[in-house]
From TrEMBL:
Catalytic reaction list: ethanolamine = acetaldehyde + NH4(+)
Described function: Catalyzes the deamination of various vicinal amino-alcohols to oxo compounds. Allows this organism to utilize ethanolamine as the sole source of nitrogen and carbon in the presence of external vitamin B12.
Domain of life assignment: Bacteria
GO biological process: amino acid metabolic process; ethanolamine catabolic process
GO molecular function: cobalamin binding; ethanolamine ammonia-lyase activity
Biased composition range(s): Polar residues: 10-20
Annotated source species: Pseudomonas matsuisoli
Keywords: Bacterial microcompartment, Cobalamin, Cobalt, Lyase
Disordered: region residues: 1-25
InterPro entries the UniProt entry points to: EutC, EutC_C, EutC_N
Protein family membership: Belongs to the EutC family.
GO cellular component term of the entry, any: ethanolamine degradation polyhedral organelle
Official protein name in the record: Ethanolamine ammonia-lyase small subunit
One Pfam family, short name: EutC
Length: 283
């Protein structure tokens, strides 16, 4: 192996020498997107650098799926910022079972259910909002983005005077586990922060799922999703702005899901331009 390739491997990146890679007309588009386009070719094959980068991204995605969720440390950090937390676990006892049995990740184990029932019994009035944090398929996304996003969200809704349930952190949790949590806590609204399935360019993408009137048995049609929350995707302020808009509209209309559209960007643009905007897809 030549010194050029050996040095590149030591630095965790491999670059093909310029004289053996034929670039295509889409090469300049690589500056605009992380998508794998305009990679060029070496003969009839992908360049070595592109092939190794693909394999490395795939390994990162696999690692993100199996990374353990450090929910205890996350709870300590949230509590240090003045937020009450409850540590819960789904009915999936370990990661292997979680991946094999999606249904078990959608419900709590007995100990967690009892804990929530006891918490709800200490309060006469229902909570307005329950924030749930679950590892999902990428604990890495939660470790990186949960705290800064929660802080931004709480700043965004500070003027609403909504009562907040303790933040629940669920190990081996899936999206629908928030329905049971909201129902047991008697919360009007739930939002779950969950690690999305890792992609080849985004092993740490955070997803938000919002539900008005949570209860066991709801399907995806009753939820609103905000995805790709991360530094290279949807920013924390914009995600919090969109979620706040959905919450306010849900309270006004008493619904969520497919009947509640995210017009937050249109409302913001209209206020800046003074124009009245509408959805061009609607008559």
């Amino acid at each position: 192996m030549g010194s050029h390739k050996r040095q590149a491997l030591d630095n965790k990146t491999v670059t093909s020498t310029p004289d053996n890679v034929t670039e295509g007309p889409w090469d300049t588009l690589r500056t605009l997107t992380p998508a794998r386009i305009g990679l060029g070719h070496a003969g009839t094959s992908l360049p070595t650098a592109a092939q190794l980068d693909f394999q490395f991204a795939h390994a990162q995605a696999r690692d993100a799926v199996h990374l353990p969720f450090d929910h205890a440390s996350l709870a300590e950090s949230l509590e240090a910022k003045g937020m009450d937390c409850l540590l819960l676990h789904s009915a999936a006892t370990d990661r292997h079972l979680y991946l094999q049995r999606p249904d078990l990740g959608r419900k709590l184990d007995d100990a967690s259910a009892t804990m929530l029932d006891e918490q709800a019994s200490t309060r006469a009035e229902p909570y307005d909002l329950a924030i749930v944090i679950a590892d999902g398929l990428s604990a890495l996304a939660i470790h990186r983005h949960a705290i800064p996003f929660v802080e931004r969200l709480l700043e965004q809704i500070d003027g609403e005077n909504w009562s907040l349930a303790p933040i629940t952190l669920v190990q081996e949790g899936r999206v629908a586990v928030a329905d049971e949590i909201g129902q047991r806590l008697n919360a009007r609204m739930t939002v779950i922060l969950i690690g999305e399935r890792p992609g080849l360019s985004s092993p740490d993408s955070l997803g938000l799922y919002f539900t008005y009137g949570p209860k066991v048995g709801l399907n995806d049609a009753h939820r609103n999703c905000i995805s790709n929350v991360r530094l290279e995707g949807l920013s924390y302020p914009m995600a919090a702005h969109r979620l706040h808009y959905l919450m306010r509209e849900a309270c006004r209309r008493q619904l969520s899901g497919v009947n509640l559209k995210d017009d937050a960007d249109m409302q913001t643009l209209a206020s800046e331009t003074g124009d009245t905007l509408s959805n061009f897809l609607l008559p």
